[in-house]
Structures
1.
Amino acid sequence: MMQSANAQQRLPQQQQQLLLQQQQQQQQQQQQQQQQQLLQQAGYPTANASNLFGDVGAMGADGLYRTTSRNPARAQTLHATPQTPYNSGSAQSAYYSQSQLVQAQQHQLQQSLASLNQSQQQPFYYQQQYHQLPPVTYTLNYANNMYMSPSFGNFTANITQMPNHLAYYHPIMYQHPQQQLLSQSLNYAGFSLSSAGGLVGGGGAAILLDPLLQQQQHQQQQQQSLQSRKEYQEYFLQIAHQKYSAQDYVGAYNILNDLRNLHQNHLPTLLLLGCTCYSLNLFELSLSYNQQILNIDDKFAEAYSNMGTTYRAMAQNASPAAEGVDCSEMAERFYRTAISIRPKYWDASINLAGLLSSAGRWREAVQVYENIERLMEEEFDAGERLDLVAASENVQDGQYLKLLWEVGRRRSKRVEYERASGQVVAGEASGFTADRRRDLYYAKGNLLFAMGEVVEARRQYLKGLVAVGLDVSPIYAQSNSAVLPPPTVTPHQAMMALQTKSDRGDAIYHPTTSSILQTLAKIYQDALKPIQAVNFYYMSLGIHPTANTCNNLGILLAPQRLNESISWYEFGLTIDPAHVHIYTNLGSALKDRGQVPEGIACYQRAISLQPDFFIALANLANVYKDLGRVEDAIDLYRRALRVKPDFVEAFCNFVNSLLFICDWTDRGINLERIKEIVTQQLREGGKQIPKAVPTVLPFHTFTYSSLTAWMIREISRRNADRVLWNVETADWFPGFPQRPIKLLSAAVRPDPIATQQILNRSLQYPYPYPLPPPPDPHIRVGYLSSDFNNHPLAHLMQSVFGLHDRSKFRVYCYALSPTDGSPYRQKIEREADVFLDVSNWSIKDIVERIAGVDRIHILCNLNGYTKGGRNEIFAARPAPLHMAFMGFAGTMGAGKVDDKENGDEASGDDCAWDAVAEAHGVDNESTVSRDDAFFFDAVRETWIDYMVVDEIACPRQFVCGEPLEADETPRITTRLAERDVIRKVDDRSRVYTEGMIYMPHTYFVNDHRQGFREQEDPEVDRIVEGDDVASFLSASALSVFGSGGSGKADGALRYHRDEGYESEDELGDAERLRWRKEQIRRLKMRQEMFPWMREDTVVYANFNQLYKVDPDIFAAWMNIIKRVPNSILWLLRFPPAGEAHLRAKARELVGDEVAQRLVFTDVAPKHLHIHRGRIADVFLDTPECNAHTTAADILWSGTPIVTYPKYDFRMCSRVAASVAYATGTWGDDKSEDVQVDRTRVGQAKGAGLDLGVKRLDNPFLLGHHMVVNSYEEYEEQAVKLGQSLKWEWKEIASWRRARRKGGKEAGAPVPPPPPFPSSDKHQQQHPVVKTEDIYGTQLASGYQQEASQQQQHQLLLQQQHQQMVSGFWPTDSLLGYPTYHQAAVAASLAHANYPTPTSVIPQPPPPPPSIFYPSRANPTHIYTPSSSGLATRLRRRLFLTRDTVPLFDTARWVRNLEAGMEVAYKRWEEGMTRMRARNEAEVGVVQRVGIGAGVGVKGVSVSAATERRKRVTSRCFWVREEEE
């Protein structure tokens, strides 16, 4: 009926193809045997190992880039199409897509490749479990990634497989051949069943019988012949079925074809023939046999269903026979025909639902499922029907499950009774067994899940579990927590579940049941309900373990139980040795355990199995990035993004890596895309519970110039919200007590005992833990940090803890990382009153120690959003006051904001309850009370109360909630592209959620004076001090030396001005001595560092990590060295990969000649790094993200900086300005050239500095010469400082020769070498002297012998520095090879006796000393910048006053911090006193009215109440020093 004539003609051709297919099948079997042998040799299991992902119908896993099952939000996973029918044999669904089939071919166990390749095309007559590689997605592991430093965390490899709602059944037979008990074994070998019967009896003689008896005997023989032929036919049909089940379709076809020739109308034979031809992709032949069935019986529903499945396959495989035929439409028509014939036909209904689903007609598919469900359930009474159980969406899953179990128990009782009494059991007569019911609910739930109806999908899954009698209600009885439950099954027990069968019914211990459990687990995992998720995963593993489930469970366990997580990953790989997701997640777990090489090996294994697995590619890139292999990381990110262009996490890390090495290709485009990503994530993530954390983490906002002020604040706020959510969902956390007045609206009225407990706890509002007793007399201060080791924070703060006033404070340090044994750690441990290593403690234990044992008053966060921080400790509120400083240069974002345009309102609900309280007589009218209420009502969200800052780093107008007098009036320099105008009515453009404690100078403490003072150099002492140094030191009152002095030492005599000092005559003896030593040390270190460099070279430097450099500032740097021809720019290889990119950019900007003056060196150890800062003449800062610790290092060395606080709302771009303005003033030097006009301070140098800060009005601040306000001014100031450096001769001994003894000078001045005549406008001529003038007469006699040796030495020097200068330096430039170095160096070290100079440099040039400064004789002069230049005067002032300026006075800083803490705590105590009074008044109201009295805020004017709640008093306060 459905077959064309052409199809009939092709049938013999199709039959001829069978021989060829049979040969191919034999070859495949041979290949499979060879593969198994190879696998056995390699140590891999080959016997029935499960595939990559276990049950295809199961959900996948979550992970690192870990691997989890399906992400329901991914729309692209919904486009899958079924490839094989759904078989009733085991009722296990299978879900395939074209892309998944390709992936499956690559990743199945090798021993099953042959059968899997067949299974891609062949639907099986019996249930065949098929495993494929689902598509994947990714989630960020918040616990590993939130506290970011420049290093990257791991991505979780999630299996994003959709539930199996598109599966359908295979073609089916009308009846199964029955087992025949034959007396002998017959083997089919081409045997033809064409004979009608066989001989009866035996022997050779015939027996003659009575005719009647003969007739009866003949009839009996005919019956026996017919019975024998039927037995033979059934027997060979059984053999054919066995071959079909063994996938020997060619052998089955040969038998069935002979049987068909014997009995052409035998329906079971024709039905199995149709199935066999389907499995051989002979679709037209399959249709032909099914049509023959319908020609015999047009009501044969199975034939219609199988024809529908065949047309479905033809549509998917684009069969030539399908030309001109809408095969999908034909398939639907045949399915519906089969259902119309038999309404309760399970297979046709399931296949129809799968067909509709694959076409995107999901609602129709659901209707098909609902129709089957109705037909199944209507056989039961109304009180026993699961389809009639209804509940609103607000009903929790646990409550809904109880309703289902009540129905299930009633039904099970009746079924047990009917079965025991021999009655027909309802439902089973129609074929609706418990297995099929479970499968129906699973398939329906999967489809609803794909449609986004998650609540209803979960309920269908629960119905499936109830249908088979599996009780999961204990899971819902457990409270939600952040602490995972203990394991209920081990990997060993799960392995036993694979190897043995349970005595219980298969309906429960079945892969589909395990898949339902795994699906529910993944849903709860995505909903951030780890307790339910872990319990469901454990239960799934106990029933039927799969690699997917091991993967998903491992992801959940990794943050808390890393070792158990690794054990499940390893077990998953025993199930599926080629599971790329598990390899990826195992790699991340091993890396987190410190086994980085092993982790890398796992990533590489995953990539070798699947080269385009973007999760593993990105994770390996992260590791390479952290190991310094940035370029390799970038290549891997590119590969990952080629596979998945919308992989935003990898994209953001890719861009960060490019910036890290200064690869600015498409920089603007990339940063704009990041801005778009952040905007979308902030908008969409705000609708989730909890709010989603953006991909860009707070630390990375420092250098993403495209992000606005609002984005930067909200990124921190989202991280803060997640931290708070982590705490509030933890089972150990007692929770925040409710404000007493809000108890009026409680949902229920508790009993009297519970009422009193609630009221007592509300008196503690708003703190979750009992408050510590008042200081008596000590304020207990706790410091938390993961950096109490060899880390910049410890370098800066190592002395702070011991400098606290022990009469007022007691210091507790909580180390979040184990000791590294460094002297920094040892010093902190020694000087803290209490030091605890809590690196292995849980959050709960740390919080309870702080709140319950140590009773801390003020808790300080020294990490913030940096690596190793544990901000959940602060979110749990263990102390009354929390502060943050030093660790993170930005807001923590923990707090409410008033930004109605973006859906945030700071205190609308609290304001409404204020009105309710006042209506009941609670007095809250005073301004102070209202502002106190603002503080305390926000304690839950504001888990950081104060930041310790200064007004330069964090201007007051950017503090959220801070009362301002008027809206901002933008200046010309205000960068409104990054933010809106600040308005007094809201926080739209404000950034900081914390109140501020403003330090008087700078918030940036350091320990350079205590920790990094260099030792005296005996050789420098000999050169500078001479023979009478001891007598001089004893007479010069040098008590200030080494301990700090503010200028001239007491009793020190003034020096006469001489030819080399100009402005140095105002210095005292001690200062002259210190300064001369510093000059010699500087010359020495410059020569050691750059032996090829001329003395009169201006060294500009920047020692920041290169990720802080941006194109704008680099262009300014190139212009600076271009305008100062005798200059170089010194950068660090930090990282080395950045050098090539910056050199290329330099050539592009200023050409090869200037670009040659870009010099790179390696990063030095901390002590050497600090001391070699003196080599530079000017430090050029980076505006996007300043030098922080490095700025303090440089200023300690005396080198001036030039910094531009580019952003007024970004603290990270203002730290260097804060540090520079803490360097003091010019002191007694009131000369006009160092004075800055007061009006200029507030205008030309204004933006970011015109803050109304009184101390900036001082025109003699050194900071005025180091802080600028634009790129243009930056360039001009750097050039000005460089050009102010004019080199000249200085007599080394002049510092002591000018000292008078009894009215006489100590000695006559030694004449300097002759000045350099000018050779051109850019540089000075080299000195012209004789060999004897340079080296002395004694050395001249040996000149000829030394000249050859020196030439060899000079050649060696050139070779040593060839790599450093990269061949860029010309022989007549700053290097001076060979015309300059020998004579100029020697001349700069000239000796006392100077003959008349000659007019030419001696030839050959004389050998220089082995080092830059003299070592063979006693020098008299040095060649150094003039003291009259601004840069030198600035350097000298910075160096000589470094022991007394606020920047390096750690003890002074600690005293100011203590003053701030005392004020903050006093303010808190006063406010808490008023809060307790309010609590008591409101508790009295509740006692009168009653908890749950139904009183609410309905009808209260929130807007009016909010307006009254606006703060009047400042959230900030200023620490004033006593002398101020």
2.
Amino acid sequence: MASLVSSSFTLASSKPDQLSSLSQKHYFLHSFLPKKPNHNNNPNSVKFTSKVKCAVVGNGLFTQTTQEVRRIVPENLRNLPTVKIVYVVLEAQYQSSLTAAVQSLNQSSKFASFELVGYLVEELRDKSAYETFCKDLEGANIFIGSLIFVEELALKVKEAVEKQRDRMDAVLVFPSMPEVMRLNKLGSFSMSQLGQSKSPFFQLFKRKKQGAGFADSMLKLVRTLPKVLKYLPSDKAQDARLYILALQFWLGGSPDNLQNFLKMISGSYVPALKGFKIEYSDPVLYLDSGIWHPLAPTMYEDAKEYLNWYGTRRDASAALKSPDAPIVGLVLQRSHIVTGDDSHYVAVIMELEARGAKVIPIFAGGLDFSGPVEKYLIDPVTKKPMIDSVVSLTGFALVGGPARQDHPRAIEALMKLDVPYIVALPLVFQTTEEWLNSTLGLHPIQVALQVALPELDGGMEPIVFAGRDPRTGKSHALHKRVDQLCTRAIKWGSLKRKTKADKKLAITVFSFPPDKGNVGTAAYLNVFSSIYSVLKELKNDGYTVEDLPETAEALIEDVIHDKEAQFSSPNLNVAYKMNVREYYNLTPYATALEENWGKAPGNLNSDGENLLVYGKQFGNVFIGVQPTFGYEGDPMRLLFSKSASPHHGFAAYYSFVEKIFKADVVLHFGTHGSLEFMPGKQVGMSDACFPDSLIGNIPNIYYYAANNPSEATIAKRRSYANTISYLTPPAENAGLYKGLKQLSELIASYQSLKDTGRGAQIVSSIVSTAKQCNLDKDVELPEEGVEIPAKERDNVVGKVYAKIMEIESRLLPCGLHVIGEPPSALEAIATLVNIAALDRTEEEISGLPSILAETVGRKIEDVYRGNDQGILKDVELLRQITEASRGSISAFVAQTTNSKGQVVDVKNKLSSVLGFGINEPWVSYLSDTKFYRADREKLRKQFDFLGECLKLIVADNELGSLKQALEGKYVEPGPGGDPIRNPKVLPTGKNIHALDPQAIPTTAAMQSAKIVVDRLIERQKADNDGKYPETVALVLWGTDNIKTYGESLAQVLWMIGVLPVADSLGRVNRVEVVSLEELGRPRIDVVVNCSGVFRDLFINQMNLLDRAVKMVAELDEPAEQNYVRKHALEQAKELGIDIREAATRVFSNASGSYSSNVNLAVENSSWNDEKQLQDMYLSRKSFAFDSDAPGVGMSEKRQVFEMALSTADATFQNLDSSEISLTDVSHYFDSDPTNLVQGLRKDGKKPSAYIADTTTANAQVRTLSETVRLDARTKLLNPKWYEGMMSSGYEGVREIEKRLTNTVGWSATSGQVDNWVYEEANTTFIKDEAMLERLMKTNPNSFRKLIQTFLEANGRGYWETSEDNIEKLRQLYSEVEDKIEGIDR
């Protein structure tokens, strides 16, 4: 097992006491904090030796198998004519059947000897394999292809076969992409007109929208054959009939069927055999769909008959026949059964039965399993499911397999079935050994087809249960994985059978960074109030919840305070002490953790003798605190390029939950913990991967923020979570306060009095107030006291006005969400205003601002432009439009609002409003404004849509879905993302999924990307004497690309001047170059830093990007017009490598590791200087993806990375939705290389830093410092925001502290934070005595961290302030320390 754990580092001296993260942490902070006596700093440091191994195996591709294991060359002693057959298939299950068929033909045939060679489509990526394939075709009589659905490989097959098609005797292609299907040729029968012809034959192929597409059309064709043939001339009819027979033989798949298939085709079409009369039998037909069991005498078409047979089995134990036995449904692929490649299916059936579960294994011949699921797994009389859980062993989407999917049809069938739906995977493109050795895990194409697509059906738990033998191509069971799959399937099923009163639930909360003030961290969620409402609901529902305190606040106290601590204790409540012996007994993988952490118990979550599990039990519910990574306080460990294993305390927590508390299900509460980010394969875990070991056999339900589908997907794939979405707090306008409010009043009086004598005086007040508000960095203001000519006054006022309107209308989430509380009317209005602002061209809905602008004869785009330039009348018009949008939507929502401000009975109330006539509420509102002539029809369309959205916004199913999951029912899937861009994200409470990774970037995303890139280049030229940036260093995030359907990915493509090309199934796997003439500017070089999550979700897109950059580097263009080529040539020369390697530009972490750790260092104050942070970034982010050797995964290319970064003129990131901005999360500064690039550049010049903001319809490119200021003004310093947070109590204080810590992060990585931001924050939270008291009382631990952060900002030179301020902070720090110790005493 140890060999499979990619080890990250070794401890040279493994005295665990030297790794105390706490002592290390204080060691760094001591210079900023008041001295505390008796701090025992350990001077010994730990030496680590880093081991990063990365070797290219063989051809660097995913699979090293070759066609030679599928080659049969006959001895041909009797000098018979030789028939040579070449085949290409997606999966290897036909290999053994075809081999057997040809071997027996060669033994018995009197008319010909057969030569056979087969290729798996994936092998054709290898250059030499492809060359051999082309050579094999040169001598071939017959070509067979099946299930060729990967575009780049389909094109290779097409190109090679086309050259030989006319010469070959027969070309047979079964369900594949249209371009390969068109190669078919059997006598006069061909499909070259596929998709164009009028004949009834082709009509069957044309209706592609039927979901399963080709394969099922073909099956239908087989059944309707006689009707079709009478339309064809007789010779054509004969050839078409043989094609259909060939398809039946092929789908029959057994060695006998394939022997007859080869006899028929060669006898009918190979000229050398024309004289012989070759006899063949008809195809042996198997059921299209049915129930199959390896011990049953036959296949069944009726579930009752099957169960009757099951009841009479002599080999089955009494337990298996008992009516109480759990029942698991299995979904199988017919081709594996008929070709005899079924040992992996048999293993799963036997394992389930050995564990006492009955099995109903169903199969289908086409690619649509929804019919068989309804037919065989649902009782036709009661309409209830006959099973407790269902496991698909096909790996494919329920409807459509690898071709076209019909997810709505699949979801409809699974909703009727209503049981947990697990989709396990057999390895398709790799052998067992290749998968075990791969850090990526599953092949990217298999991830796209067999993990991402089933997730859209609500499939979960992508466990690899079967491997493939490299020699025979047969599947075999992986027994440990089968064992786990079966246990988990039965556990999910048992949730249906167990009574609520007996069910045990472990609720797991997170605490990050580790501190008592941080227990229950989760994005946008008030965790303890939410848990409290969940527990109340469960208690009413019959679950055993005991000793539940009266309030959510009391619940916090119960969990975070150690009731028995007699003295100062940083400890939480201890739920269980696990001694070391018990720990090693319960935790089979414990020894694998010793390499990183020494022997248990270690010093994390331990008292020196036992491992401690923190939390508290309430009857059958345990609320526990998940331990943290453990290395966040240790700068040495943060420097390693690969992350450490979990520590003993982490493992002990999950051993306790599963084996001592014996949870039936674990509920991870909120976004997000550390479990799913532990080291291991990216997708397709082996039993040596830590997330897999930790979660063990416990069903995992995970509340996840609806706007974060990417990290939710990591939780699904790596910790087998059933993710249930929760709403993020609705975004409201930031509004204005203090000096900013005063400014807006001054501007209003200027507009009414500007032509009187008071104009000049008001303008000078505006200028001086703007300076007091620190707006002089954002707007060019004249010197105070200088007389401003009347002509220019409008300009000055317009620019200030535009800036404060930008602040006023900035969207921000206020407060934190509580599970099960639908938004109030006011919150719903805020969300609808944002939804209404966008034009939705696909649905032909005009945005409300567009409609209103048209009313006064303007285009909204022009109004936005004028506003951005500070043209006073445009700023004013935009304000009026915004106000009218808010007003008309408020009038609309008021129709459904009750006296408590809740939205009720939307359906009935709205249908009366959306009738006809003058009394529509939005029309009557607008009739009193300048927009009274707005287009009625367009308005009605928009408000119809808003009515649908309103129903979704208030349809709350977060608690409902949790209860369904706990009862072992199916949770309806839905997309994650931004509810404003994509209202289909609502209602929440869905099993959240991402998207088909091959579907991005979309055409619309490409359009938006062009606008942003053009504005970025414009802005950079304006700031740099008209020079183009030669290189832009930028970041790709997983969630952003899901929400925007690949906008930032498209930006990279447009910078280098290429366009994505979609294939006939709408998937993007190719790019084409845009000519320099058309581009109209030089190609800009890029350095792409992909987040670890992007790498896991979009490895195909990394491949696409890498191919695109290398393609551009090899273009024969002048260096001053192609900066990619210019730099790649320079770097190739300097490093002595070829241009393709020098053009490596797509980087991320090593597989299984995430983030640059800069965020961990900043959050835990565990860093010495900025150089150390930059080293973390370079060591962790310098792993490159190479499209020339994609199977290698991520390999370290630090030299190329540093050289590429050293050419960057600008750094760039995207903000894509209102709820997350630069200081809300630590990810943004964690990925910011601004100061680092300055250190790497030969001229030492600081690069420009830009942020694109596409959160509103009016996309902006701002500098980083402008964005940090905007963020500070709208959030940290804005009473509306911080009071919203304070209303959430304990969690709210932590949110305020987090914003300040993230601001320090930006100072550390970019130096772009103004001094006044810290000064104002100090005035707001420390100088205001009343505020100070509230913070201290509500969450003393987080308040201590807030003071510490102020002292640190000053100590590190980011904030200059008076000695008095610092003295006060030091004094406060000591007071809070004493107070905390007093509380704990």
